[in-house]
Design goal:
The complex is a heterodimer of chains A (145) and B (307).
Chain A (H helix, E strand, L loop, with lengths): L1 H18 L1 H8 L8 E3 L4 E6 L3 E8 L4 E8 L6 E6 L5 E4 L8 E6 L3 E9 L12 E11 L3
Antiparallel strand pairs in A: 1-9, 2-9, 3-8, 4-7, 4-9, 5-6, 5-8
Chain B lengths: L1 H19 L12 E5 L7 H9 L2 E5 L3 H10 L21 H20 L3 H17 L8 H9 L4 H21 L3 H22 L8 H8 L1 H16 L3 H17 L3 E4 L4 E5 L4 E5 L2 E4 L2 H19 L1
Helix pairs in contact in B: 3-4, 3-8, 4-5, 4-7, 4-8, 7-8, 8-9, 8-10, 8-12, 10-11, 11-12
Classes of the chains: A alpha+beta (145), B mainly alpha (307).
């Protein structure tokens, strides 16, 4: 009986550790990417699997330079990032930039834009189980102004 | 003993179920420059269709730190008298009050720190911690964060890092603990305080600081994000419903503010520097009467939040 009790506690501990793995991704990985930019404190993070897409709506203010940082669990393939205007035009696509996950945007006119992120699919057996993990999208602001 | 172990096991299973069932965050070159203009492109209907089908959507508001930076870059001076008084902290006892005022004190903390008001920053950080503790998210702003803030008060970069990480921690702890409605209240509290600081710092004049007034006008774009965030929890949470109603009153006024795009959005990418410049022109219009009503309504909503 006591053995079963400690077994359950052990399983629960594993569960609780994985439950905060997305936040750990931010603190352990994403924040290092900001360099001379200051992280703004907002966080958009979720568990995603290969092929999943998410959109983020954000107002970009004139005069600011933003750093967009997308980070992901190691087991996931690259994440495609597209910046899209309100009428659907693609202004930036990291597919053309070797799937860079860190990119800066200098804003010369205040605009609400859509950041679309898509977890790419790994090549291989179509019947295999899709990988899943955490994906976070964060913003930094140029502080040297 | 056996019965005690059984009870403990059931309790732990229930805790595990609550924790594991939660979801986080979302609701559902060569050096040559490349130019992209939205006038050059046919709207990608498939892409837009994909957006509407997508399940996971994030809404991002200007954070308290970004708002404080926008205010400072508009060239205003520091005025401590307009902040939520430090002593008010003892008034906040309900989860709703503590969540909203965690956002408000985070905005005030960002403002004080950007103007290098070291002693005030420590007080506002302590108040933010009290709100986080009251909400049961003690680890979001721990003693170590306060200590690091005190030790680095003369290093603004480190201070900004501590503030942004504390704000992120607070929201993530609330989301992870299946309390996303409270996380939304933190965000909305911070946004309203930023708007209150900006409107108050105009001293009722549209002409004294046009850059600041422009920043206020463009908060119309963020207003819809606030409403979208609140909308997600409005039906199930009466406190969110109440906040939604108040923000909707603000929308009625913002609806009279005009923002008109006068050019296409253009993007120029410098691959070597890894930077894309986004250009767009727009014209804005807000009458003095609407401006006065806006300032008054923001003041009214914020007074309700801090009382």
């Amino acid at each position: 009986m006591i053995f079963r009790y400690f077994l359950i506690i052990g399983l629960l501990t594993i569960g609780l550790n994985s439950f905060s793995q997305c936040t750990n991704l931010i603190t352990d990985d994403c924040l290092k990417q900001f360099g001379e930019f200051v992280y703004d404190g907002n966080s958009s993070v979720s568990e995603m699997k290969e092929g999943d897409t998410a959109e983020l709506f954000k107002t970009f203010f004139v005069g600011q330079t933003y750093r967009v940082v997308v980070c992901k669990s190691d087991n996931l393939p690259s994440v495609r990032i597209r910046v899209i205007s309100s009428n659907g035009s693609v202004l930036f696509d990291n597919k053309d930039k070797n799937f860079e996950h860190v990119w800066d945007f200098a804003v010369k006119g205040t605009q609400k834009l859509i950041i679309s992120i898509e977890v790419m699919k790994k090549d291989g057996d179509e019947k295999r189980e899709l990988e899943s993990g955490c994906v976070a999208i964060l913003f930094g602001i140029d502080k040297d102004k | 003993m056996k019965r005690l172990l059984q009870l403990c096991t059931i309790a732990l299973i229930l805790i595990a179920f609550v924790f594991t069932s939660c979801t986080m965050g979302g609701q559902k070159g060569t050096g040559s420059a490349e130019m992209v203009s939205d006038s050059d492109m046919v709207v990608d209907e498939k892409l837009m269709d994909d957006f509407t089908k997508s399940k996971l959507i994030f809404y991002s508001l200007p954070s308290p730190l970004e708002t404080a930076m926008l205010i400072k870059r508009a060239g205003v001076s520091y005025n401590e008298d307009i902040l939520n008084p430090v002593d008010n902290v003892s008034r906040y006892t309900t989860n709703k009050q503590m969540a909203i005022n965690l956002g408000i004190y985070s905005a005030d903390l960002s403002y004080t720190s950007l103007f290098d008001q070291t002693q005030s920053s420590i007080k506002y950080m302590s108040n933010a911690k009290k709100m986080a503790d009251g909400l049961g998210i003690m680890e979001a702003i721990n003693e170590d964060a306060i200590k690091r803030l005190e030790e680095n008060m003369n290093n603004r970069d480190v201070v900004m890092d501590i503030i942004s990480e504390s704000f992120m921690n607070s929201n993530e702890y609330l989301n992870e603990n299946d309390r996303p409605a409270l996380a939304v209240m933190v965000l909305v509290g911070g946004w309203v305080e930023g708007l209150y600081l900006a409107t108050t710092l105009t001293n009722g004049s549209m002409d004294s600081n046009q850059r600041l007034v422009e920043k206020i006008i463009y908060q119309k774009l963020s207003l819809y994000t606030v409403l979208n965030l609140l909308e997600s929890y409005r039906e199930e949470n009466p406190e969110i419903h109440d906040i939604y109603s108040k923000i909707n009153e603000l929308k009625v006024i913002f609806d009279q503010v005009k923002i008109v795009n006068t050019s296409n959005v253009e993007a120029e990418t410098d691959t070597e520097q890894r930077i894309t410049t986004i250009k767009a022109n727009s014209e804005t219009f807000m009458s003095k009467d609407v401006f006065d009503k806006l300032c008054q309504k923001v003041n009214e909503i914020r007074s309700g939040f801090i009382s």
